[in-house]
Design goal:
Number of helices: 11
Structural class: alpha+beta
Distance between the termini: 29 Å
Shape: globular
Length: 508
């Protein structure tokens, strides 16, 4: 294997696969994509989207935990994929184009060139195969649930979430998968699998973890790696650029391990400071969601894409042209946190859940190192429900109350035998808040830590061109750059970041 390339992509995940594929379209460029996990082509549980739950807390999961959350759930395990394709190989591949206002929020925070009107071109370039859940995969309960959601909330039916920007709606989801095979259309399946064995200038290096980025002066010149199978350490040089695509936890973590971050904190850990950048690891974000669970009178059918095939979006406050409350609907007992509090677990066939989700949380957290040892996981504090105005907490409470309204509306109500959690005894908003925060989980959308924005903004890590401030030859292009949450699931947006980053490199 060569030890020098023009471009080194750290992380073969959602954005990294896209960037590696696009750069290697130019045969004169030598491109390396370094992935800590194995090749996804050998794992049926990765490729078959219906099996995604098997991946949580598996050997293909980094299983990050959070610091104690005084106002939220301290027991959450944040699943982060350790396999080619990254979290697009791990998640449900719910396919939402970010709303224009989501990108406009970025531009308003100093990310010039990231306005919604200009981002459509990157969506149009995406290679993933996706479609609305087809008839053969629709459980009979779900049309009834949609009808009740529309009747109870007054939202519009959504036959196609991506046809135009929406302020609310209920309907079957758009999912990136092949309905004939059940194979997910991850970034690796869509971008790398067709080319990785034939494109000679592209080197996809799996089972190899990057330990640090090495600088010569102010320029990133190489990465130090370890082969996870043999334990061998070696350097891989980049003559042009290194692009970090390790994800919202590991990209800021890697910068810190490389001596790029808050100088005082790095010195305390015995890490040589290469560049003092206090904003690294700051303003991390997540989509927390609580849960309400019902036992059904009659069983669910076998039809499903991935057990969460419908969604409901509500604009309850009318303060924006985007939804401010979202629900995933799980056709399975998603009971990781309710069971811990003593709630029963219904039979898989007789259970459905609604999960009120905060599309744009006000709470912010941070990530930091506990050790200079790269084997020690970082400390992660999402600061759940710590926003001073209590917006996040009230959104969850509103969400639980609205879910009950949906359940009290026919024809969905005719399916329901009883409410399992929080249960009919929990009625006051104070008690719903206590319950909702105790059992909330994550949608596995950790974002931020390498915030994009104006170069002169002390809270940012990368400028609008994705270059790390004060370091030449180094960019970050993944979920870590989010300065604000997208209203919708972020996987499409991260694919778009990959497309835009590749174009920035090729057309400076």
């Amino acid at each position: 294997m060569a030890s020098e390339f023009d471009y080194v992509i750290v992380g073969g995940g959602t954005a990294g696969a896209v960037i590696g594929a696009r750069l290697s379209e130019h045969p004169d460029l030598r491109v390396a994509v370094i992935e800590a996990g194995p090749d996804d082509r050998q794992f049926d549980e990765v490729l078959k989207i219906k099996r995604w739950l098997e991946l949580l807390e598996s050997d293909l999961d980094y299983k990050y935990t959070t610091q104690a959350q005084p106002r939220g759930n301290s027991h959450i395990v944040h699943s982060r994929a350790k396999v080619l394709g990254g979290c697009s190989s791990h998640n449900t591949m719910i396919w939402f184009k970010p709303l224009p206002g989501d990108w406009d929020d970025w531009a308003a925070q100093g990310a010039a060139g990231w306005e919604g009107a200009g981002m459509e071109q990157w969506y149009d370039k995406l290679q993933n195969k996706h479609q609305i859940v087809p008839e053969q995969d629709r459980d009979p309960i779900l049309p009834d649930w949609i009808e009740s959601a529309v009747a109870a909330t007054g939202v519009q039916r959504q036959p196609d979430w991506n046809a135009a920007p929406f302020r609310d709606g209920a309907g079957f989801l758009d999912v990136a998968y092949d309905p004939d095979t059940g194979i997910r259309s991850s970034s690796s399946v869509s971008y790398l699998h067709p080319i990785m064995d034939t494109r000679e200038n592209l080197h996809v290096i799996c089972n190899t973890r990057v330990l640090r980025v090495n600088l010569t002066g102010d320029r990133a010149t190489s990465v130090t790696c370890v082969n996870e199978e043999t334990g061998e350490h070696y350097d891989i040089a980049a003559t042009q650029e290194i692009v970090l695509c390790a994800g919202a936890i590991d990209s800021p973590r890697l910068l810190l391990l490389s001596g790029i971050g808050p100088a005082d904190e790095l010195r305390e850990l015995g890490i040589e400071v290469q560049h003092d950048l206090p904003s690294v690891g700051g303003e991390i974000l997540d989509h927390p969601e609580s849960i309400i669970i019902w036992e059904l009178k009659k069983p669910l059918g076998p039809q499903t894409v991935m057990g969460a095939d419908c969604a409901l979006f509500v604009n309850r406050l009318g303060e924006d042209d985007r939804p401010d409350l979202m629900y995933h609907t799980y056709q399975l007992p998603f009971t990781f946190n309710t069971e811990r509090l003593g709630y029963p677990v219904p039979d898989d066939r007789y259970c459905i859940c609604m999960t009120p989700n905060i599309p744009r949380t006000k709470s912010r957290g941070r990530l930091w190192l506990l050790s200079r040892n790269p084997d020690i996981k970082p400390a992660i504090d999402f600061g759940y429900f710590t926003d001073p105005d209590g917006y996040d907490e009230q959104t969850i409470v509103d969400g639980l109350e609205i879910a009950r309204e949906v359940a009290a509306t026919g024809p969905f109500k005719d399916w329901i035998k009883r409410e399992i959690a929080p249960g009919p005894a929990i009625t006051s908003r104070a008690d719903l808040s206590t319950y909702g925060r105790a059992v909330h989980h994550t949608v596995y959308h950790p974002l931020g830590g390498c915030k994009i924005g104006a170069v002169d903004d002390p809270t940012t890590v990368v400028g609008p061109d994705l270059r790390v401030k004060g370091v030449d030859g180094l960019r970050v292009a993944d979920g870590a750059i989010f300065p604000a949450l997208t209203t919708v699931n972020p996987v499409v947006g991260i694919h778009m970041i990959g497309e835009k980053c590749a174009d920035m490199i090729l057309n400076p």
